[in-house]
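Record copied across here:
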Amino acid sequence: MVSLTGRRVVIVGGGKVARRRARAMLDAGADVCVIAPEMDAAFSELPVSRIERGYAVGDLENAFLVVVATDDTAINDAVSREARRLEILINRTDQPELGDVTIPAHAHRGPLTVSVHTGGISASAAADIRDQLIESVDPDMIRLLQNVAPFRQLFKQRICDAGARRRALRAITEPAALAVLKAEGEEALQRHCQAILSDALRQVKT
């Protein structure tokens, strides 16, 4: 996974596929600009910059990634050529194998992201599998991840020994921690994590 936070992503195309890509890029924290003479009405609901005209040379300036999402192969090729010249990463929705980046079917539940890629064989199959996987996740596991997130940073700061730190980080998401959350609630889970920290520090000292 590549961090897109604060990076400029240009999407050339204004249809439904471009809209889905825009949502994915926004979810990743990107600064999104969409270029197309006509755009799906749903773009008005998204916090993107819109340039309502056809693509022109120079539109990719300062971009980190370009999403090529028109139904015109000649335009897609032209955008890709400029991106190559400027050394900008390319995601092509018409011919994914010609780009540098492929976007898997993905879904978020709190801090958890589930993504599925079928090697370009079937986007619809990837979406179906994604939905099955995300629905099968125990909601309490999401709660567990949300609750132990502050302890992850605390453990990294307080536990100097690398081995002890790895064991402690693993322990706060193991079945025993989930069992504490299910049986006794979030405050008990926090006490459990604090006890793991105390044990790790004591073991390092001895």
